[in-house]
């Protein structure tokens, strides 16, 4: 029996950095959604663990114990076997949780293959701060350093465009370069009647990692400007620690038209239209 799992991209609609713990990790308050762009994984029964990385974004992604998928398998079933194929579609080190979402999808898939229970959120932090959030992809509010997952509001109909300019941004370096660590938390997301009302609310919130990421990768400014310039773009913002940015649109038509235009203008950028998913 082949088990399959989808690893959707994570988008931080907001990302407020509210403090720093004595161990150096930062406390966050972030509204997170998942979208239908992502990686695909398959799992077959096998004596030993193996991982094959394929797909359009496989280049540079390790196919061994350095991969978060491998680490997830080791955490869930130490010493157990499975033949895993990871089809990469998401850019790596991009702020959209590629590795974390792959790890979470591996946990979901292998838990079915091996008929074992999923670990608790706190245990998953060892794999990455985004892994607890990625375990059950749906709109959520992430707090603590990533271990506290609260249900998010119901999202209005919307479409997104994701752009990655091909520059890898180091997450630790971006956190380190933050000017202030004790920024105000996010108000409770109220739920919204439309994408436009939501975008207006989001516009008054922040991604505190945007300024330090921009200093490290100035091209992020060009990406945000390019999104802002497309017809129907309600809000443009960076996700996670960058460099991927997203634009929010009312309709799929607007997002698809923006994607076509941006791909023509910047064939060197990864440009992807997407809609939110809950799994
Ligand atoms: C920026 C976010 O993507 C927001 O969703 C995440 O907080 C980062 O999640 P991630 O990439 O899974 O992060 P990890 O691999 O656990 O951590 C990478 C590095 O980022 C910094 N880090 C991460 C999460 C956090 N709450 N505080 C931090 O300071 C630490 O220096 C850590 O060594
Ligand atoms: N399954 C995987 N997919 C991509 N990269 C992986 C994976 N496993 C390990 N890595 C390594 O982890 C690094 C970070 O990649 P990842 O896609 O997790 O990005 P990220 O920017 O940390 O995501 P985010 O900040 O949103 O959590 C890469 O440089 C890569 O070498």
UniProtKB/TrEMBL annotation:
Pfam family, any one: GHMP_kinases_C
Annotated active site: 10, 130
Pathway of action: Isoprenoid biosynthesis; isopentenyl diphosphate biosynthesis via DXP pathway; isopentenyl diphosphate from 1-deoxy-D-xylulose 5-phosphate: step 3/6
Keyword Transferase belongs to the record: yes
Record keywords, A-Z: ATP-binding, Isoprene biosynthesis, Kinase, Nucleotide-binding, Transferase
Superkingdom of the source species: Bacteria
MF-aspect GO terms: kinase activity
Domain GHMP kinase C-terminal positions: 200-265
Positions that bind ATP: 91-101
EC number: 2.7.1.148
Protein name: 4-diphosphocytidyl-2-C-methyl-D-erythritol kinase
Source organism per UniProt: Rhodovulum iodosum
């Amino acid at each position: 029996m082949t088990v399959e799992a989808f690893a959707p991209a994570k988008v931080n609609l907001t990302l407020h950095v509210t403090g720093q713990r004595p161990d150096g990790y930062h406390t966050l308050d972030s509204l997170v959604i998942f979208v239908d762009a992502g990686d695909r994984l398959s799992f077959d029964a096998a004596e030993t663990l193996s991982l094959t990385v394929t797909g359009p974004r496989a280049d540079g992604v390790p196919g061994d114990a350095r991969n978060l998928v491998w680490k997830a398998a080791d955490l869930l079933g130490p010493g157990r076997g499975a033949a895993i194929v990871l089809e990469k579609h998401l850019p790596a080190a991009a702020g959209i949780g590629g590795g974390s979402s792959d790890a979470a999808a591996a946990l979901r898939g292998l838990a079915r293959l091996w008929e074992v229970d999923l670990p608790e959120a706190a245990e998953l932090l060892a794999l990455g701060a985004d892994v607890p959030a990625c375990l059950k992809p749906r709109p959520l509010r992430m707090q603590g350093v990533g271990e506290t997952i609260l249900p998010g509001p119901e999202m209005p109909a919307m479409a997104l465009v994701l752009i990655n300019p091909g520059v890898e941004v180091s997450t630790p370096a971006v956190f380190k370069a933050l000017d202030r660590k004790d920024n105000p938390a996010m108000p409770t997301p109220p739920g919204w009647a439309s994408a436009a009302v939501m975008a207006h609310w989001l516009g008054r919130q922040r991604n505190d990692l945007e300024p330090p990421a921009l200093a490290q990768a100035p091209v992020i400014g060009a990406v945000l400007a390019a999104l802002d310039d497309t017809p129907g773009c309600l809000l443009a913002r960076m996700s996670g620690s960058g460099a991927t940015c997203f634009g929010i649109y009312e309709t799929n038509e607007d997002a698809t038209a923006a994607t076509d235009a941006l791909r023509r203008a910047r064939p060197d950028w990864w440009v992807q239209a997407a809609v939110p998913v809950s799994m």
